[in-house]
Amino acid sequence: MTISTYAELQTAVATWLAGSGDTEITGNVADLITLAEQRIFYGAEAPYESPPLRHRWLEASGDLTISAQSVALPSGFLGVRRLYLDTDPKVELDFLPPIDFWFRYTGSATGRPAAFTIEGDNILFGRAPDATYTGKLLYYKKLDALSTTPSNTLLTNAPGVYLYAALLEASALGADDPGKAQYWHALFRSAIGGLMRSDRLDRYSGAPLQIRGDTSSPPQFKQLSRAN
Length: 228
What we know:
alpha+beta, 2 domains, four-stranded mixed sheet, 21% strand
């Protein structure tokens, strides 16, 4: 069975649930896929804990026009990979938790931003900018819901991630044999774990990380994740 489109995924979920002719199940497959997407991109806690998927297929980049202390996060934002000012030389912005950010930047002084934090759906900069700056943002972005697009890179290359997540949600909600939930949970965890492991290997080619002392280049950036 090919699983490369939203329609094919819906058919596969119903078939694996042995309910392709059961209108009660097939009528809820779209909901199961929606719940699966929530699990994939935001993770889940007990009883069926799983980490959020973070992979280069979810990366997006964009420019931020920083002319005020608060700038709206881009649509679909999941977490920051790196953020720097496009100045000469380029300036990496330090991430601070909100409590530390406001402890340091409660005054009215303005200048070139040196740090940022995230509150609500906004990035806050400290100091408040004294001019207009361009921020270069690399971030993890949630893929568009499959209900609004026929397919995406994740479904094309790793359909098991969607399939196992949807089947897990079905079992957890009782649409399938609840005893199968642990089985689907293990398969889902294995699928996303394999993806994230391969992503790490591709980024670093198996070589040990090294500290670079070349200050003429932008520094290596730490991964910063948004709390969900």
